[in-house]
Amino acid sequence: MYDIKNINIKQFLAEQGILPKQERTGYGMYLSPFRSETAPSFKVDYSKNLWYDFGSGEGGSIIDLVMKLDGCTINEAIAKLENGSNFSFHLSEPIESVHSTLQIVSVKPLENHHLINYLQSKRSINIDIAREYCQEIHYTTNGKPFFAIGFQSDAGGWELRNEYFKGSTSPKSPTTIGNNSATCLLFEGFIDMLSYLTLKNAIHPTVDMAVLNSVHNLHRAEEFLKQHQTIHCFLDNDESGKRAFAAVEKLGRETIDQSPFYRNHKDMNEYLVMLQQKQQQMPKPKIKMR
């Protein structure tokens, strides 16, 4: 095990196509492989050959890294490293992570100006709509305090987002919103749902909605989806979104793919952000002076 722990983490990550965004003396800063982010929060100490994720408060050796990336046991991680196996994780996609060391401290109305600024400036979300469906969550990870936008699942878990962090707490499940409608709108994540409602300027739509909180939760949403005659799918424009749509079609309901509506964008939120940017760039009409 000693030799395995000495496998160079920097080299291992490079072999998976992950390169540092910032090089410092003795260490490198990476975009975390565990979530989607724009500012690097994942540190690799080159001299100690250890990693640390500031977003989740987790870290350790290369064995710990493979265990977390591949969702495997310590013995499986060691075997993979010994054999130089191909790894099954897909680093090009954000990994939905449930943090066992994360503890919720408080749940309150969404008021934090950093979180509101993130939703407005980075995500173009209407704050009144966000406040209707989201909460402000204060939590600790390994004793360190953090805060995030929280969206609760039917099972009581929380989807957590801020500008630098994407994660969740267990139990992981979809979120369903019923309005006794024969029509259901299906979204992968709550940011996409908020984006749709922002586009429609609707806080309380008359149709039902389901948010998967991960395409891996689709089977948990099937019973709710089967209660509807028509399902409108606002899924991501990628392979996982296509597979999820095909699975929904098999439920035998009228299934409508809405992704062509934002075909040149990854998802509904990216489309919303583009629209707002275009609107901001439009020249303002000149006021004629009499």
Automatic annotation (TrEMBL):
Enzyme class: transferase
Any Gene Ontology biological process: DNA replication, synthesis of primer
EC number: 2.7.7.-
Keywords linked to the UniProt accession: Metal-binding, Nucleotidyltransferase, Transferase, Zinc, Zinc-finger
Pfam families in alphabetical order: Toprim_2, Zn_ribbon_DnaG
Keyword Transferase (UniProt): yes
Keyword Zinc: yes
Highest taxon of source: Bacteria
GO cellular component, one term: cytoplasm
Residue ranges constituting the Zinc finger CHC2-type domain according to the UniProt record: 31-82
GO molecular function, one term: zinc ion binding
Name assigned to this protein: DNA primase
Organism: Mucinivorans hirudinis
Upper lineage: Bacteria, Pseudomonadati, Bacteroidota, Bacteroidia, Bacteroidales
